[in-house]
Amino acid sequence: MSKLVVKSGKGELILRKSQSLVGLRRKSKTDNPDLPGDSPEELDQLGGFQVVRLETTEKSIDDRLDEVRAEEETEVGTHVYFAEGSDKPLIATGELFVSFEEGVSEEEQQLVLRSFHLMLIERRSEYHVIVCVTPDSPNPFKVAHALQELSLVKLAEPDIDMPLSTYQRLLPADDLLPQQWHLHNDGLVPDTPRYLKRGADAKVVDAWNRMGNLGSSNITIAVIDNGFDLYHPDLKDKVYQPYDLQRNSPYLVHGDVRLVHGTPCASVALAASNGRGIVGAAPNARFMPIAGIDFSVRTTERAFDYCVQKGADIISCSWGTTDPQYTLSFWKEEAIAKAAREGRNGKGCIVLFAAGNESYDFLNFYAAHPDVIAVGACTSRDEYAYYSNRGRELSVVAPSNGDWPITAARASWDPGSAGERGAFRYWRDGKSRGDYYKHFGGTSSATPLVAGICALMLSVNPELTAAEVKAILQRTADKIGLPGEYINGYSRKYGYGRVNADRAVAEAIRMKDRAGAVARVEEQVGSGGGLYKIEVEAQSASGWGVQVGAYASYGNVMVEVERLKKQFGLPVLVNISEAGGKTLYKIIVGAFPQKSGAEQLLARIRAIGKDGFVRNLEGL
Asked: Which of 85, 367, 438, 578 could in theory staple to 426 by disulfide, Cβ–Cβ 3.0 to 4.6 A?
């Protein structure tokens, strides 16, 4: 096999075997042991191996490595690989870091390790172990790939070594980025004496570093609002399919001093990384400005239908109403639901609404829609923003003002705060950070911040549905505030917590990897074809059997059950359970009233080269 695919922290690592480099570990412990073979070129030391280049003019790298392995001085020889897109050689050290799903017993863990002839060298916790390969194991990359396919295993990563480079954090060069504490909060705001709470941020910079980029340019964020300055330097090169709802036109009105809200909202989500000014959470995303929103049903329908028709992935809305006389009609609810369920070719547009700034115990009526991600606000000190509405429909909160404000873009015609003069019209402390920007906040700012984070999630996993994006945001959020403010993990003030872009992106990557693994297994099972007779009979949870495996694919279960029934002539039981969000099918052979019967069966199973363990059926 010239290529291997293994799990890595950034998704799938596609490895190509080097056709000239190998790693050698020598028996001699001197500083300069004799080189084996015909004096190959000696390169880096990696993972305890000396990387050498072998002459392969007439023979394959596999044959040459076998020759070197056979030499008396060679203790271990291994292949060297390159990751797709990288020119740095890497080697597996022989150790693997394995995390089992919660609920997987130690016996089940041992079954998995024995099946690959792995040796346990350290147990970090109940479900986290470090193992190493033995002479009977496949190579570490193949073992990691096979382990990752197992439903009992949450994560399996081979320990690898590669040449390191010195580097800086992935940060855009935009000069106002240090002001954007909501992306990365180190506790200070430049040019002010203000002290914030270190770490009270949305972890966006961490997400960028995890991804290795600033997101995809194939993701489109629609911002429905009023007052877009499409000539702003952070927005002008990103505009895609603009639309004015009132004029039914792609040309948006500029210059109305009453309409300035859309510009800062859009910038928080997607301001370009162009070396100056600010940067949005998803600076590579496309910008679909939709202007002229109002309360009417017709306008609402046209706005959301336009988003679906023109290919918006995310719809950010920092407006609404809490006036009890103007709740949402059935038709408005349907317009939002249609976009959230039918957009993106059936995966659903991700729709976000601001919770509202009235400090009410109920949300903006639009935000309360069940298909919407309702966003509240927290502060630069990880505290509840006093103005943010509370309610049982709140999804998450995101950093905004309440302690120190957000820096955002401003429209060229923005008159600033009424009654203020000079820089105080735009800046809380009166210190100007440039004519194109201003201080901003409210749930109006929190909402597009989360919209930008959604764009990062879709950048790494575009197959996520709208419902999956919402669920990921909620389960990866950080619990801030007092523990007593949460009941069963939920707070009416904070929802599921403060959004965490890095954890959300990591989960989106994990789900992509899992979906890919399942698809590959299903393809392999499906290629065998066949017609199966399925009989279902309830089994009392008593007695003893031998568990021989656990699967995530029902197709694999059917094939294995049929084979085991023929092989042993015994009933084969299937226990269906959940672990770590995965459905597990545990296969158990036999149902004996006494433990001794299961022990005898286990001996038969091991005699033919399989493995398993005796299992008490009670409680399954």
From this structure: 438
